Amino acid sequence: MKHQRSRVRRVTTLIAAGALSAGLLGIGSTATASASTPPHTSAHQAITQGLIKPPYDINNFLLGVAGAPTEYLEQVDSLTEHQVRITRRTGPHTIVDTWLKDPSRFRPAYLTIDLLDVEGNSVTRYQFNYPQITKVAPPDRSIQTLTIAFDRMIIS
Asked: Which residues span the domain enclosing 89?
């Protein structure tokens, strides 16, 4: 059973990495790394320090707001040059909920989405500068989809 879960995680990680990479192929040179990109963080470390809750299921994406690990995402898709769609669990438990309640008062300088390996370590980080929530799909059984526009993407 444990071997099967490990295999499923590896396959899920590879599929997720492939999907994100395929979406980025059309972007070209706008997706460049920066020396000012924050260092990768370990999801395991964030969980053990009580900063975030462990995922409900096998989740390979970790959302960060202004450099702080915030929550695991259910899904990341529809990545374009200036927009990304994320699916998350709802609840008044993270800074994302604060952002949703009053987007005019709180707007982070950047978001990050880390693609995690099976041990919870960041493999690839996508940083989205000057993000703005443009669409909020109504929750469906505690799952919520957000469309986020951004000015610039940095991949490291």
From this structure: 2-155
